[in-house]
């Protein structure tokens, strides 16, 4: 029964909270599992974290006191504390980039019932002298279909809050909460906080732009032909192509060429990046056409060697990276002498000699 007696309502809320705490935990875990599945099934890009918490009982009371009590009692409107707390169950979703937030939001809206949305991104950006963390807060509940299923029936009446942030926004929110007395600090300190907030916002924007530029490079490498003329205009004129030339091998065109020969293998970005750097340390002018030629000319020989090696050493592996290393070694043994470590290099050289293979 609602009342205007804060002490009574605190006791009632504590009793309600204690009776339902196990249910809150069960609901939180169920919602996290459901959201994980939705994110994995949707084309939203990488999400770094999905986590949840049940808000502390006394923190709930403090929030009600801070946000609602004075107005309700001023209007002489009886209340029950539990009816004004939509975030007892909280879920946080951390995306890599800010532009993923809206995409994740739409995915959730299509599967859950949306009760309210608080766009802290728009709120901060529309206020020149404000500082604080950004993010999208959504008060949600199971859809009618979900609420009718046995999996959600027990806690379908309990709403939950979802906070969606970028990785940078989440980092700023942690620091923002550590800044004490934000409403009372001098203006010069407020300006410094605004500068810091702007730097975080700039970092968020730059990470997104770097991602977009990287995608363009990958797309360009995808449409470029696998094979180039082995002699280009610069080379025919006696000029050496610079290491920055797009004809030089890089992480993007490497995947294009290697993916053509190893169609069923997934080349991971960071491994490709490191592998290409290994190549360029030995020959910084190595071209994409050189990589293509080394595989065309030597892949069959290396595969024959690999097959015999694996029969004799079934506990070992011989990945496409290893295969390419052997092809490069066979392509130019003087330049790529160190592309293989001593044991594999000596073993391969012995095999080549025994099989009468041509060594350059």
TrEMBL record:
| Matching InterPro entries | NT_sf (IPR043519), RelA_SpoT (IPR007685)
Domain annotation RelA/SpoT: ranges: 52-187
Q: Output the SUPFAM superfamilies linked to this UniProt entry.
A: Nucleotidyltransferase
What sections of the sequence does the record tag as coiled-coil? none
Instruction: Please list the GO biological process terms of this entry.
Output: guanosine tetraphosphate metabolic process
User: What SMART domains does this protein's entry cite?
Assistant: RelA_SpoT
**The protein's name:** (P)ppGpp synthetase
What's the source species for this entry? Desulfuromonas soudanensis
């Amino acid at each position: 029964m609602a009342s205007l007696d804060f002490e009574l309502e605190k006791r009632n809320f504590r009793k309600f909270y204690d009776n339902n705490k196990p249910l809150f935990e069960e609901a939180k875990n169920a919602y996290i599992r459901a959201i994980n599945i939705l994110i994995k099934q949707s084309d939203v890009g990488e999400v770094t974290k999905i986590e949840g918490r049940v808000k502390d009982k006394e923190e709930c009371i403090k929030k009600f006191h801070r946000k609602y009590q004075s107005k309700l009692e001023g209007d002489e409107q009886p209340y029950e504390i539990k009816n004004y707390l939509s975030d007892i169950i909280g879920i946080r979703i951390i995306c890599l980039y800010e532009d993923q937030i809206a995409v994740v939001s739409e995915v959730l809206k299509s599967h859950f019932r949306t009760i309210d949305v608080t766009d802290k991104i728009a709120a901060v950006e529309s206020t020149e002298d404000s500082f604080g963390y950004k993010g999208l807060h959504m008060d949600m509940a199971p859809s009618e279909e979900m609420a009718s299923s046995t999996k959600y029936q027990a806690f379908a009446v309990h709403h939950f809050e979802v906070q969606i942030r970028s990785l940078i926004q989440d980092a700023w929110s942690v620091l923002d909460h550590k800044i004490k007395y934000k409403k009372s600090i001098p203006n010069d300190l407020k300006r410094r906080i605004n500068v810091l907030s702007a730097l975080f916002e700039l970092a968020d924007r730059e990470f997104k732009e770097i991602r977009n530029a990287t995608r363009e490079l990958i797309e360009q490498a995808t449409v470029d032909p696998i094979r180039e003329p082995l002699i280009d205009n610069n080379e025919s004129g006696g000029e050496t192509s610079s290491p920055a030339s797009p004809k030089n091998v890089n992480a993007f065109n490497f995947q294009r060429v290697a993916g053509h020969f190893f169609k069923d293998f997934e080349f991971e970005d960071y491994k490709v990046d490191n592998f290409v750097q290994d190549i360029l340390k030995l020959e910084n002018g190595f071209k994409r056409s050189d990589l293509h030629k080394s595989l065309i000319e030597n892949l069959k020989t290396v595969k024959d060697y690999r097959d015999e090696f694996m029969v004799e050493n079934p506990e070992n592996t011989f990945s496409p990276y290893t295969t390419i290393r052997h092809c490069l070694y066979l392509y130019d043994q003087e330049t790529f002498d160190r592309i293989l470590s001593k044991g594999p290099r000596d073993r391969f050289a012995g095999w080549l000699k025994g099989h009468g293979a041509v060594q350059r």
